[in-house]
Amino acid sequence: MARRPLPRILSSGSAQIARSREIARTAADSATDVLHPLITISRGLRKLAATARAKWAATPKERRGPTLFLVAACVLVVAFMPYGPLFALVGVMGAAAWQGRERPVVKTGPDDAEVARLKGLYEALVPYLSLPDDPEPLFAHGGDWSGAFSDYAFDEDGRPTRLRIAYPPYFTDGEPAARARIEQLLHAKSGRGREYLFDWDEEGNRLTMHVLDALPTTIAAQHFVTVPGETVLGFTDADAVQRTVPVRAADGTEDAPAVVWRTGPRSTEPHLLAVGQPGSGTTSLLRSIALQALPHGDVLIVEGGGTGEFACLVGRAGVLAVECGLSGALASLEWAAHETERRLIAANRARQAGHPAPEDTRRPLWILLDRPSVLGHLAAADGRPDPQDLLQVPLRHGRAAQVTVVVAEQFDSLDVLGETVRGHTRARVVLGPASPEQIASVLGGPPHTTPVPDVPPGRGYARLGTAPVLRLQVPATPDPFDDATSEAHRQAVLELLPERQTATMATIAPAPGSAPDPDVDADTAPTLRKEPGTAALSAPVPAEG
Questions:
Q1: Average model confidence (pLDDT) across the chain
Q2: Beta bridge partners of 208
Q3: Membrane spanning segments where (predicted)?
Q4: Which domain covers residue 94, as residue numbers?
């Protein structure tokens, strides 16, 4: 049986109804826009009338007569004044418009989603913060979370950014393991991928959780306002340190809280150890330290990776050598050990004679080693001494001789470092993604925040001796010869480089009797000479150009 088509009025009725609804909605919106002032004044008049009615009801009966007489007198005065009724009408309309304006809704408490998240946190903490014998437990399944949680705040995604937790006095908040369980639970339930700060108040039995903002990465290498003997390792939170330095950032000049490392004879942490994953920024940290040390001292660089990360410093004034091969590294470190002994002897003789220390013993000498474990493997395969063995004298006596040692190594080769390096590098830096256990093994204490898995280069933690663990962001100091370096960062590093030496270039050759370095061409290698009364070895090189 064939279908019969619907009548035209039925088939087109739904479209006409939808079109009519759209026209009515548009007309209503237009009327609302036109009549908005009238609606606002009407709403305000209702509020004023309700306020007057409430005040009249609250007025005692014995005062209503005088009050009514006073109002009537005011009305008469206004009525007989020139333009009085007009001014009164304008005033009433203005007050009504002010009272009837649309005010933003003030949030006075958490919404349903936030309440559900707080209840989830409360239930998750019950097994850790309650005991079966507690007659009035603060944490109990199905209990009231408002008695334990306060001072809470949420982000736009509904995740808590601040929370204050009251816990029972019998909780073992003095045990690191118990604290770590609570912090790990709150970190997992509040949202991963963010860095949390946990502040334990043991006296008041309170735990405050904060979500920390990421440290800025817009500060590049530059001249920092410091005195000789101070090195800016990076920047941290504003409330973590008491000192700020003016810096140039991407958005202008500002005062940034800096982590300042002090070296010299009065330093309690004269040497530094930086550990990180590949690409975490330890080499950039060494470049930043070298650029800050060159205006006031001499720098000796030993690069175990052999990637040419310090090629921009070759031949610069104040750079004694940049060694990548095993023979050059051994010769350089052997000279550094002898130089440390020479400085100690010269300073001791001057003190015995009642004279100040010689000038060449007061100029700081910096020894920067990047990945010494690679050179150690090469030395073991070649039957030669480990370069770390030559660091014993500079590490043990470097503070008195104005010699500072900075070692950078990766986590996978951390066990290769000797006890001398570990024992005398009291200033520690950990960069890149790392677990709390790895950070604690290097810094000697756990971080005060929860590390995140994805961090930019140069982000990590620092600890100077027994001081608290600080978050750290190293100033961007990339290799200016790298094609991936931005033009702004390249120019920032090039501006800090000293002038190249044209007459002589500081370098160090292999020690007598040692095997030649296969990476050095014998025809072009410079011949060294030790000038009497000088602390460095020099060799003539042709002028640039």
A1: 84
A2: 164, 199
A3: 68-98
A4: 37-53+78-100
